[in-house]
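## tool: complex_structure
## caller: assistant
## args:
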Amino acid sequence: MPHAPSPGTLFIVATPIGNLEDITLRAIRVLREVSLIAAEDTRRTSRLLNHFAITTRAISMHEHNEHDRALPLVERLLAGESIALVTDAGTPLVSDPGHLLTRAAAARGIRVEPIPGASAVLTALTGAAMPWAKFAFLGFTPTKQNARRIFYKEADALGLPFVVYEAPHRLRASLDDAAATLSERPLVVARELTKIHEEFVRTTTTAAPDVFRSREVIGEFTLVFGGAEPREDTAREPLSDETIWAELGRLAEEGRSRREAIAELAKREGRTSKDIYAAAERGKTAGEP
Amino acid sequence: MPHAPSPGTLFIVATPIGNLEDITLRAIRVLREVSLIAAEDTRRTSRLLNHFAITTRAISMHEHNEHDRALPLVERLLAGESIALVTDAGTPLVSDPGHLLTRAAAARGIRVEPIPGASAVLTALTGAAMPWAKFAFLGFTPTKQNARRIFYKEADALGLPFVVYEAPHRLRASLDDAAATLSERPLVVARELTKIHEEFVRTTTTAAPDVFRSREVIGEFTLVFGGAEPREDTAREPLSDETIWAELGRLAEEGRSRREAIAELAKREGRTSKDIYAAAERGKTAGEP
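## result:
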């Protein structure tokens, strides 16, 4: 009796979000080596494949045919073929199709292997240059005003910085709704990420509607809403003694008295002034030869 | 009078999280072209640089010296040098240092340009093969049991799937605390992402402590807690008529009567049975030649 072949691997492959150089060496190799690429839009993907002289066949799998495509693809994986899943841009499954195929494959014991790469979420967050340690990603905002306002209210209640995607023709309405429903937060509007006209507009929920009243609104937008607290980034781990000592020095340079600096740091860190004072003394000693 | 030089760019460069092939073409080029690399750990980064024959000088910038390093680096950027910020693994600023430098640079008008690439957050989420459309990233869990239980309680209340990082020597305690405080959720424990021993253990909050009682716990862990609702992924946009027609067919294949299938879909989609019935009829017609 012939042995059943060992099943193939389903690779979830991140592709560029605008700049064709934003693809990893492994992604290029895997796209070359698999027997089939399941692509959200085969025309868009073929531009990528042509650029890198990859000749693997691509078939379309998008939200409207995923139910029909998933099971035959799982059968091919079980029969030993390896398949790569890609979407139009960025990391598949992030506001993109592929969930059904991925789960169906994993449920049949097929190896699902992510090939990491570009994604607008983290690109926007790292370019935002605002403090964050935690965040929520909430996908596209709803298209209707009522639903969008409820969405922003719920987002506000999370108490986290959060990232959303927004279509250009809805940007102004969305910024109006954000201003009307959110508590005051820093807001970075990222446009055309990784492309030539990449731009980070650093503003606030309150100021944003005016800023964009007079701007041309074209391209794709990713919105990063900062935390309502002033210093999210210090919440993760208590500062080391050395850092507290250094930070007191910095605050002194900015003109605070020692007492003010200690009080400010204590408040920011959720510790007592006495505790901060003791830590600074230890940090000072540790920094000395 | 001489002109001031045009300032350089601060590149935030994502590097591999385990597999050296997980670096983009642009990251390699930028690391080659900048005049200086600010690295969390120069020894770890020099392994990467050697592998790709990159000879750019790297200096250390980590959480304990970022306060001292940031301003001189900003001065060099203002003087026209371009600098790349990298951390030990993955996308800088994600539970990593660099926030202070990035904000200081942006505040002085220096261009901050993210070079996207690997990150454990999205790698774990895409390999998890569980339904999600939104998520929260919460960084490392607190190290003390009390704080960790409060952390998990607050995470639970977000009502979103969420991702955390966990140290190997705390994994079992953390899973115990999650089981004790979280509502029942699917849980994927990802280990050694992108490395040879990459593994996704698909379990639940309740079952996980037992699963890991008998397993060796080595490597780095990323935990993906699924949503408390069964079908997060259908929440984003209403299903198309064609998809509803196809989905009813699938449910019929699984043995549901037409009435049961319509009722199930109506509940899942938050629509009335009458609405689902009408959509299916339209979807059926649209699918016919």
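## assistant note: Chain A touches chain B through 69 residues (CB under 8 Å). The mean pLDDT of chain A is 90. Handing back to user.
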